[in-house]
Specification:
281 residues, alpha/beta, ten-stranded mixed β-sheet, 10 helices
Length: 281
């Protein structure tokens, strides 16, 4: 049987002092002194045809395990890997040894200069080959929002960009989606090959529809920065395309195709969405 996709559920890393110990298995937990990084590597070695490897929540993986995986993982362990979902510290073990990787989903984490420097080093070889880049960030991560261009620039040939802003908190004074959308629009200039952009805004304040709103001029700014851009899916779930217009100073006009339903969003990839001149079904 050809197994091409694996999704790893939440792992209890034995190296963390905060690991949960369930009643009845504490003795087993205490006795195991193995190397989780090596076990993950063995799993990968057993599936040489694997193309997609996703961690549901690799935030539970410690630096010790990530370092073990990074020290031992080889290109021969993931010869066909094309898509990866993981936190940056785990992804860094894969990036230097996955020559066929083209899709990267970086899960939520707290960014800083040190993490970026490590990512820059480990992604140097594969960065230009990533075509689909997804990143999820905290609304409060000031480093990330102040350095978006640097993070985007790690993968300069990105054609499909998906960004999720997480504000699932009861904290007050959270900026509306438009603030983050504008931050993105101001920093995508480092991605000249960009064709598709999706921006999601995850918040508990979903009873206030205006918190998701972005203005037409914000969408225009995205297109102006990336001339090859074809489609934008905004935080409200509205699909935008662009039509040539010689009379416009920008050379194009934005076209609102319509609002996509949750079913549409769950079943469609960006590349499947209507192109300019088409209508959403």
């Amino acid at each position: 049987m050809k197994l091409v996709r694996i999704e790893i559920p939440i792992l209890r890393d034995p190296h963390t002092r905060y690991a949960c110990v369930w009643p009845g298995d504490s003795k087993i937990e205490a006795k195991w002194e193995g190397d989780l990084g090596e076990e993950i590597r063995k799993l990968l070695q057993a599936q040489p045809l694997l193309e997609e490897f996703n961690f549901s929540d690799s935030n539970s993986i410690t630096y010790k395990t990530a370092a073990s995986l990074q020290a031992s993982l080889k290109a021969s362990d993931v010869p066909n890997l094309k898509s990866l979902q993981a936190t940056p510290i785990v992804a860094m073990a894969f990036l230097p040894v996955s020559p066929r990787l083209e899709s990267l989903n970086l899960m939520i984490t707290n960014w800083d200069d040190g993490l970026f420097s490590q990512m820059e080093t480990n992604s140097a070889a594969i960065g230009p080959f990533i075509r689909r880049f997804t990143i999820r960030g905290w609304y409060s991560d000031k480093w990330l929002w102040n350095n978006l261009a640097k993070v985007f620039g790690l993968f300069p040939k990105t054609e499909e960009l998906s960004i999720a802003i997480n504000s699932l908190t009861t904290a007050e004074n959270v900026e509306p989606a438009r603030y983050y959308f504008q931050q993105i629009a101001s920093n995508v200039y480092v991605l000249p090959s960009l064709r598709d952009v999706e921006v999601q805004f995850e918040t508990l304040d979903d009873d206030t529809p205006e918190i998701f709103e972005v203005e037409t001029k914000d969408v225009v700014e995205l297109k102006t920065a990336c001339q090859l851009l074809e489609r934008v899916l905004d935080p409200e779930g509205r699909l935008w395309t662009f039509r040539p217009d010689r009379q416009s100073t920008t050379g194009f006009v934005p076209h609102l195709v319509g609002l996509l339903t949750s079913e549409d969003l769950g079943s469609m990839e960006l590349e499947d969405l209507p192109s300019p001149g088409e209508s959403a079904s």
